[in-house]
Write a structure and sequence with these properties.
The chain is of the alpha/beta class. The protein contains eight helices and eleven strands.
Length: 247
């Protein structure tokens, strides 16, 4: 077993709130500078920038978890990740069918750009990605796990767009792989306030929207190798694998 450093909550140029400097090459160069072994690409309600970054990351020795930051009908943000291009594409269809038709206003919300490995613009997402889907928390979780994915309620300590701010509790029948806390708190402080959550596995991530935010909060995984399969095993603490929030 070895220790690997991960930041699993990073936005790209595709997220309207993401800086236009958050291109694939800059994200990966920042990840290398911060000595990250794993990163998660989590644009709002879209996976369309993931695959090119995953391919580029593999060439550089960085494992890229491909997914999204989903906004459920209850306006709860959740991180979701998938192992294969097929499952990623199937989940994108799920998103497309449930995202409202409201058009994005770039002057108000920001551009939603899809780029290739050379930063050439391949397209623009016309619909506003930060809207809530027409899908409940339970429906999103079930679809993610049906496709073999990982499901993590995001920044649960925040007063907006978190499972606790919107529901006030974590449903006992919700199949959670882990919970994410933001850089605003520590796991120790959080569990002192919420000892009932000690049963869960925790991660913490940067939620980076700008290059210099990448790696500002990281999680250490003890794994055989940096991979989707190994991370899923770590969340279950299988055979010596482990998860530990750093800094």
């Amino acid at each position: 077993m070895k220790n690997f450093t991960a930041d699993l909550h990073i936005h790209t140029v595709l997220s309207p709130c993401g800086d236009l400097d958050m291109s694939p090459d800059i994200i990966l160069s920042q990840a290398m500078a911060k000595k990250l072994d794993l990163i998660g690409i989590t644009d709002h309600n879209s996976t369309r920038q993931c695959q090119v970054i995953r391919r580029m990351g593999a060439e550089l020795g960085i494992c890229v978890l491909a997914g999204a930051e989903v906004t459920t009908r209850e306006e709860i943000h959740c991180l979701v990740f998938f192992d294969s291009d097929e499952s990623l594409d199937r989940f994108q269809l799920f998103l497309d069918e449930r995202l409202p038709a409201q058009k994005n206003d770039p002057d108000k919300f920001g551009y939603q750009v899809i780029v290739d490995s050379q930063n050439n613009v391949k397209g623009m997402e016309e619909r506003l990605l930060i809207n809530a889907l027409d899908a409940s928390l339970e429906e999103v979780e079930q679809e993610v796990h049906l496709l073999g994915g990982i499901f993590i309620p995001a920044h649960i300590d925040k007063p907006r767009f978190s499972i606790l701010s919107q529901l006030g509790f974590i449903p006992s029948d919700l199949a959670v792989d882990a919970l994410e806390i933001s850089p605003l708190t520590t796991q120790e402080n959080w569990l002192a306030l919420h000892p009932e959550q000690r049963q869960y596995c925790f991660i913490s991530s940067s939620d980076a929207h700008f290059p210099d935010q990448i790696g500002r909060r990281v999680t250490r995984f003890t794994l055989l190798e940096p991979s989707f399969c190994e991370i899923r095993k770590a969340f279950k603490k299988e055979e010596g694998r482990n998860v530990l929030i750093m800094n």
